[in-house]
Amino acid sequence: MQSGLTKKRLRLWLSLFLLLLIALTTLLGYQALSQMKWEAFRQYQMLAEELAGRIDDHLSTLIEREEQRSLSEYNFLNILGDEESNFIQRSPLSKFPVTANIPGLIGYFQVDHQGRFSSPLLPIGPAKEAYGIPQREYAERLKLQQQIQQLLSQNELVKTTIKEQIARPDQSISEAPDAPFINLTKTEALQYEDNFSKKSFDRLERRAISSKPTPATHSPSAALGQAAELELTAQFQDKQLMAAPQEKIARIKAPAKRERRKEKTVVAAPLAIADEAVRVTTFESEIDPFYFAQLNSGHFVLFRKVWHNGQRTTQGILFEQQALLNGVIKRLFETTALSKMSSLTVAFQGNLLAH
Question: I need a surface site. Which of 58, 93, 270, 333 has the fewest CB within 10 A?
Fold first, then answer.
């Protein structure tokens, strides 16, 4: 009887061993590749989270800087120091051209408790001579102020038609072009506008704190669609990757809750139009935190409510959308390695803004 392995059986065992070795090598290679894939993804994820944190910190710093502004800075005139010093100066926000501490900043505005629009660009009334504003500069300031007012009006935050009509003694209320006002008295018309602005900003506040998508139908970026329409995880269908933590989309963290604060304010107001005499008033107010929202036109607005004797004034800042996104998010994105290996999609409350 022949002992040992024949050449045929030896060849068979070597073949089986070789197949087993190939299988083990393939499995180990697959595992190593999967591990490398996961490590690369996790590194990519950490870079994205770091970018989101940098964007969040930058925007939070900009907003906190605006939070510290006194409510009196939204007026054309300020009092430097306390009431006794009586040193009157122009508001820092009255500088022209507007110095943009925040990219895309168009200008500052306020709407008082009677629904009257104003900005720190100009004193109330045609008093340019009293404050040494050259005629050409006054015209440019007025143009910018009217642009801000028009944007607010287009987005149904203020109504100006009736107040403009009332300010003209040569035209009666019945001649105003807006049909709802034809049969109103002056007092009723003004009251309508006051309530209109308050309700409009209340709706905007609810939109700002809402988690539901709020399409900006007239925005140039509206054609980009909704974030929910994107298959953002389509390239991560691997089970091992899907079992990983769910922060696959870098998100800016929610800001810490800010509280209403009290402020003692010294305000200077002209006693009469084109009169250099100024009345100085000191009062205590309560100031709500800022809210950030997108208007139907696509513009961004940062706004807050100010309370004095139960009366409410709204103060805010208008921003051009793409200039803000490019000046903050795109600029920070392009300084990271992510910009060389990926694209960035920006969305706000479910609306795609830029890609």
Answer: 58
- How far apart are alpha carbons 276 and 343 in whole angstroms? 57
The C-alpha atoms of residue 53 and residue 246 are separated, in whole angstroms, by 17
State the Cα–Cα distance between residues 71 and 285, nearest whole angstrom.
9
**107: how many CB neighbours lie within 10 A of its CB?**
22
Residues 6+ apart with CB under 8 A from 306: 71, 285, 286, 287, 288, 312, 313, 314, 315
Q: What is the pLDDT of residues 162-217, one digit of tens each?
A: 444 334 333 333 333 344 444 445 555 555 556 788 888 888 888 888 766 666 55
Q: Which two tokens stand for residue 160?
A: 């100006």
What is the number of helices (H) and of strands (E) in the chain?
7, 11
Q: Give the number of other CB atoms < 10 A from CB of residue 257.
A: 6
- Using CA atoms, how far residue 93 sits from 19, 145, 300, 327, 343, in Å, is 78, 13, 19, 21, 37
- Cβ burial 131-143 (10 Å sphere, 16+ → b, else e): bebeeeebeebee
Element (H, E) at 324: helix 321-324
322 φ/ψ angles, rounded to the nearest 5 degrees: -65, -35
SS3 assignment, position 80? strand
311, 317, 321, 327 alpha-carbon torsion, rounded to 10°: -150
